[in-house]
Task: inverse folding
């Protein structure tokens, strides 16, 4: 039974990594920072898989992209860390962890717990991504950009839609939460050796 739970957890981690990659290609082109549906799967990963597995799903996604597979919105490869939007990916991993951690603190989470956790995760994503965007453009890429422009392209252009997605994802997560119970923790199987 423990082995089954562990296998299921690994499958769910891989599945949410793949869904995040798919979400990268469901996008609306915007200046500098395109709007994508990746964030939906980040919210769901945190809510449904828990802190550790939610984080792992995003780490797997980021790792696959950094080794060269074109799973990010603008390709892949180790040099992607220099892209202005890489801060969002870091934020995704942190948000999935924090959302899962907040949900784990509640024995029986309600609709408001899921909504609250997703909003905290959303704030965390932007708290990491917006400063990263500013540093990447102004220092690494030497594209002199004001904070007002950064806030416009990196925050104001997408915050309303992302807020709506946070709520919609929370409502969906509430319905799916019990289904994903077995995938929320990887259990280590201990094999006892008997000495004759």
Result:
């Amino acid at each position: 039974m423990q082995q089954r739970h562990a296998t299921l957890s690994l499958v769910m981690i891989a599945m949410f990594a793949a869904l995040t990659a798919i979400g990268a290609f469901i996008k609306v082109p915007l200046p500098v920072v395109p709007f994508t549906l990746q964030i939906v799967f980040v919210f769901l990963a945190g809510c449904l898989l828990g802190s550790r597995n939610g984080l792992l799903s995003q780490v797997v996604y980021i790792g696959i992209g950094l080794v060269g597979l074109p799973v990010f919105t603008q390709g892949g490869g180790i040099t992607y860390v220099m892209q202005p939007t890489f801060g969002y990916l870091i934020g995704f991993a942190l948000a999935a962890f924090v959302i899962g951690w907040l949900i784990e603190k509640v024995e029986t989470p309600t609709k408001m717990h899921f909504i609250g956790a997703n909003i905290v995760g959303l704030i965390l994503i932007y708290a990491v991504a917006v400063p990263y965007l500013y540093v990447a453009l102004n220092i690494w890429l030497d594209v002199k950009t004001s904070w007002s422009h950064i806030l416009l392209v990196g925050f104001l252009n997408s915050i309303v839609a992302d807020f709506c997605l946070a709520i919609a994802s929370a409502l969906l997560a509430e319905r799916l939460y019990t289904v994903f119970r077995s995938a929320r923790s990887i259990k280590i199987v201990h094999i006892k050796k008997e000495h004759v």
Notes: The two ends are 26 Å apart (CA to CA). The chain has a mean pLDDT of 89. Residues 58 and 116 are 21 Å apart (CA to CA). Strands lie at 27-28, 35-36.
